[in-house]
Amino acid sequence: MDLSPRPSFKEAFKYWHRLGWVSFGGPVAQVAMMHEDLVEKKRWIDEDQYRRALTLCTLLPGPEAQQLATYLGWVLHGSLGGLCAGLLFIIPSIFILLFFALLFVHFGQLSLVSSFFFGLKPAVFAFISIATIKIAKKNLLHDKQLWLAIAAFFLALLHVSYILIFLGAMGIGYIWSRSTQTDHSSPLIAHSLFSRKDLVYVLLVVVLVALTWLLPITLIAALDFQASWFRKLILFFTGTALFSFGGAYTVLPYVWSGVTAKHWLTNNEMISALALGETTPGPLIMVVAFVGFLATWNQVHPVDVSQNWLALVGGFIAVWYTFLPSFLGVFLGAPLVERLGSLPDFKIIFSALFSAVVGMMLLLVLRTTGAMLQAGHWQVNSIQLMVALLAFFLLWKKPQFPVWAVVLSCGLIGVFVH
């Protein structure tokens, strides 16, 4: 596939800005949206680059869709492009969720959001299903890749660690590469991968991220601004970022169990947070903005400062420490992956890893189906089933129809029905 001329920074900036406002549907939908826009329509990114990017972002802890945007922005315009793409992907959802958090604490339960969420579930199911089918057809080109994807699906279904699944896929990919290459010399020895310039780049990235991590906590301690509480919040969400392998659908149970065990939020408040995360653009794990806001609102009751402003600081801290390690992982990993990705052995290893990624996506289809089942009963709500089939048919037959329009229409149907 011939690539289009590289876009200007301004043109790419406009795309990332628009994506931040229309990226509904959760991580799989957002990943598919970027593939359709950047690989198929605009042809700014080639298929191999996209596969390498998605594979790395799936392996890294943190939100894979936001990391993918950062990686692709880096491919187009270096570190500044990656920084802009990653930030623009999350900024709209930060302010939307913090606005909803303000409404929540002042006006109680958001029944309108619950009704919208009722209609959103089938729309998300339809888009994730179509995205998985398209990506599987494009990338599972051999029987062994298909069987590897199926194996990854069942292992994940049995709650085998994502890290073990991906390590296994890498091992299988290495075996494939050894069986297909005539020259078995190690690619790491046969090619010079690092230079002094690379080492300087790595050190610079690590130092900048470390300073960025230390800045808020140092400032809070210096001002004695509820330092004890915010230190707890910082450590919790740093742990969330570092140990959240498997994307948003594995982060959410960690956050849920952590904040409810600490009695920062109730189960009902976490349900409201998840509903808001599903109905807003941006990464699903952006619910941490709502959680950080509400946890601060519930736990800290100052007399010398507005509780609204204090809760907003809590929301921003949750976002800051959840997403900061994502930039570190991408900026360190992307140059290495791009260099290794051009080597024959690693192309095969990445192919095996991507097969495992497809298996993970298939599991998300199953989980989305489960979201439409009535609690405790294997019984599908007939209205949701009808909306799901309608959304699937529309997106399959009319791929030019805007995804965000389908999502919003399904949500409005949910409001009307309820």
Structure description:
- The protein has 418 residues and is mainly α.
- The chain has a domain at 26-141 and 195-344 and 396-408.
- It is built from 17 helices and no strands.
- The chain has helices spanning 9-22, 26-41, 47-59, 64-107, 111-139, 143-157, 162-180, 187-190, 196-223, 227-242, 248-261, 267-279, 287-299, 307-341, 344-371, 382-397, 403-417.
- The protein is globular.
Set down the secondary structure blueprint.
Layout: H1 9-22, H2 26-41, H3 47-59, H4 64-107, H5 111-139, H6 143-157, H7 162-180, H8 187-190, H9 196-223, H10 227-242, H11 248-261, H12 267-279, H13 287-299, H14 307-341, H15 344-371, H16 382-397, H17 403-417
Helix pairs in contact: 1-4, 2-4, 2-5, 3-4, 3-14, 3-15, 4-13, 4-14, 5-12, 5-15, 5-16, 5-17, 6-7, 6-15, 7-15, 9-10, 9-14, 10-11, 10-13, 10-14, 12-13, 13-14, 16-17
- Share of residues in strands: under 5%
Number-wise, the strands total: 0
Q: What is the element string, with H for helices and E for strands?
A: HHHHHHHHHHHHHHHHH
Alpha-carbon distance between the termini?
Answer: 48 Å
Largest sheet: none
Give the structural class.
Answer: mainly alpha
